């Protein structure tokens, strides 16, 4: 039977960059994120005995190479768990440009995990789904549970998974994604993670992580938006410093990215409470509270070269929708 899963992308407030175990995608630090209501992947999976090989469609394109291989590897893990050899047809659609720092691998592998597990007849716990999604793409483990999420790094396959800290309606935080670039990135995050340790700043990043995670969890608990925003912004700059100083260096920003950052900092100095974060791509995630989002959107629309703004509230995690 065909099952369709819907999974949100997520934005990391505290980010995962660098792995303890490459193959199992176990990170060197824990991370904290929010699932996003406006950017998601819909994935239908059907196991079909008449198929000689897996068929993988992503955004209406029949995949034949790297992307297909990654999906097939993930299907193999789920087939092994279910004890069946049957090939599958997978049809996945994103409602946003993939590979540009809006976490399409997170929503994609979370939806694939839930869709394939359901289609094969496995009824798995949220923890198990999160562990499995992590094997496809690390950040995908955070798109399984609802709302505001913590991924505890763990140190083995069975201990590295994500769980909900607070449900979506806990706090009306908005993530306004400013799309400045639509092209896929040249260096994937999977490749980027392997370079992290070559940055001279990586050790100090990791040594400060424990206290940063404690602080942001306190800001979430106290609903202290200024504290939350400052930590989010410092963390994004910290991760991009590591990226830009790795060997070879990684620059995910475009000129418009920096232009937007400077505007955000200027508007904040004028009293508007907004902060930014950026993942492995040029697009900027503007973080504000629901009460100021209309005003912030107006300001953002006044910027040159902005292609699109995608408004997000906190969202539930992955669900079967058929
Ligand atoms: O899960 P991956 O391999 O796509 O890595 C995600 C990396 C960042 O988006 C830059 C940070 C994060 O924690 O989401």
Automatic annotation (TrEMBL):
Q: Which ranges form a coiled coil? A: none
Q: Give the matching Pfam families.
A: MDD_C, MVD-like_N
Which sequence ranges are marked TM in the entry? none
**Its Enzyme Commission number?**
4.1.1.33
Q: Specify the superkingdom.
A: Bacteria
Gene Ontology CC annotations of this record: cytosol
Keywords of the record, alphabetical order, are: ATP-binding, Lipid biosynthesis, Lipid metabolism, Lyase, Nucleotide-binding
Listed under GO biological process in this entry are: isopentenyl diphosphate biosynthetic process, mevalonate pathway
Tell me the protein family, please.
Answer: Belongs to the diphosphomevalonate decarboxylase family.
**UniProt-recorded name of the protein:** diphosphomevalonate decarboxylase
Q: Which organism is it from?
A: Candidatus Woesebacteria bacterium RIFCSPHIGHO2_01_FULL_38_9
């Amino acid at each position: 039977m065909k099952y369709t899963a819907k999974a949100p992308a997520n934005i990391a407030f505290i980010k995962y960059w660098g792995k303890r175990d490459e193959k199992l995608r176990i990170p060197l630090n824990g991370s904290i994120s929010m699932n996003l209501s406006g950017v998601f992947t819909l994935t239908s999976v059907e196991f079909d005995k008449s198929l000689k090989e897996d068929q993988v469609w992503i955004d209406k394109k029949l995949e034949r190479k790297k992307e297909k291989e990654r999906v097939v590897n993930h299907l193999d893990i789920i087939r092994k768990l279910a004890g069946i050899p049957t090939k599958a047809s997978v049809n996945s659609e994103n409602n946003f440009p993939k590979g540009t720092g809006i976490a399409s691998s997170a929503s994609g592998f979370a939806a694939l995990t839930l869709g394939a597990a359901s289609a094969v007849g496995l009824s798995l716990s949220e923890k198990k789904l999160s562990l499995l999604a992590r094997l496809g793409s690390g950040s995908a483990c955070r798109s399984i549970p609802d709302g505001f999420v913590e991924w505890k790094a763990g140190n083995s396959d069975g201990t590295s998974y994500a769980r909900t800290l607070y449900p979506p309606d806990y706090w009306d935080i908005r993530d306004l994604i400013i799309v400045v670039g639509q092209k896929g990135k040249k260096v994937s995050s999977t490749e980027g993670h392997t370079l992290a340790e070559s940055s001279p700043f990586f050790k100090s990043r990791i040594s400060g992580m424990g206290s940063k995670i404690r602080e942001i969890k306190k800001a979430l608990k106290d609903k202290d938006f200024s504290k939350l925003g400052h930590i989010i912004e410092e963390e994004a700059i910290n991760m991009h410093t590591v990226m830009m100083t790795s060997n070879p260096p990684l620059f995910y920003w475009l000129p418009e990215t920096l232009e937007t950052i400077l505007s955000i900092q200027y508007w904040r100095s004028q009293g508007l409470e907004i902060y930014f974060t950026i993942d492995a791509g040029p697009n900027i995630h503007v973080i504000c509270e629901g009460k100021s989002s209309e005003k912030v959107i107006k300001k953002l629309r006044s910027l040159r070269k902005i292609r699109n703004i995608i408004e997000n509230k906190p969202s539930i995690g992955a669900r079967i929708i058929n």
